[in-house]
Amino acid sequence: MPVRVQCACGKSFQVVDALIGKKVRCSACGTMVPVPGDGGPAGSGAAAVTAQAMPNTTTRARHAAAAAAARKPVKAVPAIAFSPKTVMLACALVGVPLLIVLVKIGPVRAMDQWKDLEPAIRDYTYDVVRTVCMEQYKGIVFDEFMRPPKVTNVMIDGPIMMFTLPNEVPIQGTSTEGHFRGTYFTREKRFEIDINVGGDFQTIKVESHVDDNGRSVIDKETPISPIPPASRPAVPKSR
C-alpha cells in the first residue's frame, strides 16, 4: 500500500511501501525525507532513493512535456516562387501550340472553304441571272442587231477574316438588263435575288437552290417594284 510522507517544507506525497525505512527526495525542495513505517527504523538502510511518482506527479510530467513540445519552433514549409521569366516561358510553351491549333481549325480552315465556295457562288449567280433575263425574250430570234442578254458583273461581298464560314453572303452586280442584288445562304445552298429586267423597268424576286449535281434551279419568280436608284451599283458601259 502507498505510504504518505510529509516533508518539512510542507510538501506531502505518497510512495510505495517498498521504500519504508529508506529516504526519498522531496519533489518540491529536494530534501531527503525518511519514509516512516514498521519495516525498520527511519533512516536505516543504505543510500537514499528518489521518490516514485504517483498519478498526480505523472500528470504534471506529461503537461511539462506537452508545454516543451509546444514551445519547440515549427519548421515553415518553404513557399514555391516562380520568376516572371519562368511564367512567361511556360505560357509561351502552352499558348503558342494552342494558338496554332485554333488558327488551323478556325480562320485557316474557313478561308480554305471560302476559296472553293466563292467561284461556285459566282457561277450560280451568273446562271440564275442569265436564265431570268433570257426568259424575258421568249420567242425572239437574236441576231447581230438583237443580242441576247448577258451578265456583265458579279460582286460578292466576302469576309476578310472569319473563324467559320458565313451563312449569308451578299451578292450584287449588273447585266445588260439592269442591276441585281441578293443573298446566297451557304448552309441551305439557296439564293434570294432581286433582278431588274428591261433596263430596270421591272424587278423580279427570284428564289433558287443548288441541287445535288451542283446546278442552280429556279424555284420561284415574283414580280416586285424596281430597286431604288440610290441602292443600285454602277452599271459598267459596254464597249
Structure commentary:
- The chain is rod-shaped.
- The protein has two domains: 3-60, no CATH class; 118-231, no CATH class.
- Helix content is 29%, strand content 27%.
- It starts with a strand and ends in a 15-residue tail after the last strand.
- The strands form three sheets. The protein has a six-stranded antiparallel beta sheet with strand order 6-7-8-9-10-11, covered by helices on one side.
- The protein has two helices and eleven strands; from the N terminus they run E-E-E-E-E-H-H-E-E-E-E-E-E.
- With 239 residues, the protein is an alpha+beta fold.
- The protein has helices spanning 55-71, 84-135; strands at residues 3-6, 12-15, 23-25, 32-34, 49-50, 151-156, 168-175, 178-185, 190-197, 202-210, 216-224.
- The model is unreliable at 39-56 and 235-239 (pLDDT under 50).
- The longest helix is centred in the middle third of the chain and has 52 residues, at 84-135.
Please name the defining characteristics of this protein.
disordered C terminus; 2 domains; 239 residues; alpha+beta
Strand segment count: 11
Order of helices and strands: EEEEEHHEEEEEE
Give unreliable regions as ranges. 39-56, 235-239
The overall pLDDT, averaged over residues, is 76
| Biggest sheet statistics | 6 strands, antiparallel
Helix content: 25-40%
Number of helices: 2
Q: Kindly, what is the distance between the CA atoms of the first and last residues, rounded to a whole number of angstroms? A: 136 Å
The helix-and-strand class reads alpha+beta
Spatial order of the strands in the main sheet? 6-7-8-9-10-11
Give the radius of gyration.
53 Å
What spatial form do the alpha-carbon principal axes imply? Answer: rod-shaped
Q: Return the domain count.
A: 2
